[in-house]
Amino acid sequence: MMSAMRKGAGRWLNQFTARERWLLVLGGVAVLFWIAFTLVWQPIQARREALGGQIAFYERAIAALQAAPVPTTVAPSDPRSLNAIVADAARQFDLSIRRLEPEGNRIRVTLEDAAFPSVILWLKAMQQDSGLRASELDMTRRPAPGIVNATLVLER
Prior knowledge:
alpha+beta
C-alpha cells in the first residue's frame, strides 16, 4: 500500500518542473511552520500569560497579608446588620455567598467556588473594617487550582 502511494506521489511530482517542485517544497515548509505556530506556539504563550496573571494575583495577596500589621485594637463595630456587612464585603471581593445564617452576634457564611486569595483578603478586610473575626473556618479544595468552598463563622 505504501509503495503504491509512493509511486503515485512520485508520478505526481515528476509532472512538475524542478522549479515548481522547489516551490511546492517551500510552500509545504511554510504551511508546516504556520501549523506549528498556530497549534503549538500560540496556545503555549496564551497559557503562559494566563498563569503569569494568576501568579501576580497570588503574589499581591501574599504581599498584602505579609505587610498588614496585626491589629492590636478592635476595629469599630459597624452598626449595620451582619447580613448587610458580610454581603457588601463579599461583593467587593467578588465572592459568591451560598448561605448566610445569623445567630445573634455571629453569622455562619457558606462560600462556593471562591478564589483562595480573595477569601483571605476578604477575612482581613472584615476584621479591619467591621470588627468581625472568624471564629470557625472550614475550607475544602475544588478541582480548579486556587478555588475553595468555605464555611466560616464570623463574630463581633
